Amino acid sequence: MARLGIRKYSILFPLIFSVASSVISEIIAYNIVHDPNAVGLYIIFVNVIAILYFSFRDSVQGGYIVTTISIAYYLYIIYARHYTGNQLSAAIETTGWLAILYLAIASIIGFLKKTLDVIFIKEQESRRIAEEGQAWLQTILQQLPVGVLLVDAKGHDLQGNRQLEKILGRKAHAYLEVSNYKSEKTTKNGKALASKEFPIVRALVRGETIRAEEMEYLRDGDKEVSLRVNAAPIRNKNRQIIAAVSTFYDITEEKELERRKDDFVNMASHELKTPITSMKLYIDLLISRIKESGDEHAMKTLGSIKKQTEKLQELVSDLLDVSRIQTGKLQFSKEEFELGDLIQETIDILGETTRKQTLEFKIKSPITVYADRFRIYQVLTNLITNAIKYSPAGSTITIDVKKMKDKALISVADQGIGIEKDQQKKIFERLYQVSDPYEKTFPGLGMGLYISKEIIRRHRGTIWVESQKGKGSTFYFTLPLKK
Ligand code: ADP
């Protein structure tokens, strides 16, 4: 049995064995028992055993070699013992029958052995492939720069890679029972996360796929780390969940950097605000003085300085608003006002800055909304400025207001460059700008729509865009009519 699965069949060993056994039996017959006919039965028995053994050991070829040598030896006996008459014909007949029997045994056993070997080798091969695959997977898993946690269907067998242990500060098997998750250790938005809300548990139990969920984790009892976690169920062919996998990224440094950046922007914009306000006051003062002197050139220069200062002031004010949104400090003072009036005012102010596009707005019936007038002015300014910025000279920008149940629907439509479908949600994200090599000429920081979205959201309204690349965009937002 030990030779099962070995493909190298020996020729030499069965050959040597059967020649040797024939020679030995001749020696015994002539020199020990002194009866040349005494070997008959004994040698038949020995040869049957040898054929059985060698056809199993060395497959068909082993059995055939022993058979050939045995039959040759029997023929030699017939020749050497000088058989005659009946004895000769009986001996030849017996040898013939023995040859058939030996061949049959060698063929059957040899064939069986060969089949067994093939099966055994195939099984060994598939086991080797499976083991190699496992080793591969293990190596990849261990080398991955992200923490990976795997759990079986029952939630008992947990496996993790080195990075996971590094991130969580403990071995993966310490999570052996899902109920052992130290829920108080993990928080999301400052609240303790119940173990059933863990991404890997949700993937395993509810079949959810979780992408980039952020949470905090208390490592070694005192060090808070920020994690970005993904999780997904693993299903078999019948779509049954057989395991779940979760990946962990340590984003503590990323978060810290983001916080420092936000702090810096907040501080810098606060610091800039006061000097710019004073600058503007001085410029206004200078303008009123120069006006009296009638110096046209100085007036023009001061006018330009004033415009640039106002732009700077807007930028700083946007930066401050972004900071306020980040820290939840954006304040509103709501009142009832006539929306058409505000839109007209905005158009009048912005119309002065553009002579290239026509701003179209026809008020149909008055619509009173309940909102922060200044903040809505800010939203309108942003949308109309963008429409001016991203559309060609000679085109028309249409502003419209409609009543919709308990809401007012405002739209700003342009015939400009438009926005690709996959960018239409992203443009409302903080500091997001559509990157297109041909559109690099438009200045801006990608704050306007982010601020507008937050302002509208805080008014329980919605803001969105409908657009077709190259054809133009229409921005919509809603506002409540009453308190
Ligand atoms: P900014 O205009 O300062 O870059 P916004 O937040 O106002 O920032 O806009 C974000 C991005 O959305 C812009 O950079 C621009 O790519 C795109 N966008 C906004 N309005 C329009 C518009 N009317 N037409 C085409 N693209 C627009």
Task: Provide structural commentary.
This protein has 483 residues and is of the alpha+beta class. Helices cover 52% and strands 19% of the residues. The protein is built from 10 helices and 14 strands. A 7-stranded antiparallel beta sheet has the order 2-1-7-6-5-3-4. Helix 6 runs antiparallel to helix 7. The chain starts with 11 loop residues before the first helix and ends with a strand. 24% of the residues are buried. About 2% of the residues have low confidence. It binds adenosine-5'-diphosphate (ADP). The site of adenosine-5'-diphosphate has 20 residues, from helix 9 and helix 10.
What small ligands are held by the chains?
Answer: adenosine-5'-diphosphate
Spatial separation of the terminal alpha carbons = 90 Å
What is the mean predicted local confidence, pLDDT? 88
Report the structural category. Answer: alpha+beta
Radius of gyration: 46 Å
Count of DSSP helices? 10
Regions with little confidence, pLDDT below 50 for 5+ residues: 176-184
Which assembly state applies to the chains in this document?
A: single chain
Largest beta sheet: strand ordering: 2-1-7-6-5-3-4
Order of helices and strands: HHHEEHEEHEEEHHEHEEHEEHEE
Shape: rod-shaped
Quote the beta fraction: 15-25%
The percentage helix is 40-55%
Biggest beta sheet summary: 7 strands, antiparallel
Number of strands: 14
